[in-house]
Task: structure prediction
Amino acid sequence: IIIGINLLGCVVSAQNNTNEMTTWKLELLTTYDFLNTSYGTNNGFIAKGKYNLYHSKHFSFYTGIMHQNSYINERKNKFTKHTRGYTTDVGLYALTEIVYYPFRQRKFFMSIEPFVGVTYLRSKGSLKIPAYGVSETYKNTYVYFNYGVSNSLGYRFGKISVQLSLWSSLKGFWDKGRF
Result:
């Protein structure tokens, strides 16, 4: 689970020749895994571009793309003191988002956002356990199909919103791909 805080969210509207409104939403988020579930200190960013397909009093429906980039410092590893290195995690995903606004003013919102795409994982470092005479360096790359869901609670202040997101990759959870 990665916790994200939406630092900048803006809505861009444009009028085309048929007088219809076309609305795009740009989200730039920073991520931090404060639960340390990723075997090290995890920091990163997510950039999303979404197109509004449907808009009503209490619901909005978007589709778009997402780029995710994470850096995991394995020196502060929760499970072993002998690893020195890092892992980078870069992904490109297609997504849909359903947003629910429970109140009339549409400031507070809840959303669910399934995604599907490709992740490129690279890890590099060393493992040293002097008591057992183990000393190895490693460098691995792995490209895989990834899918999951993001759930968010947020509040909008004009065109800027702040949100708390739980981002869960289901790869490995349902198909034992990484377990």
About this structure: The CA atoms of residues 69 and 90 lie 4 Å apart.
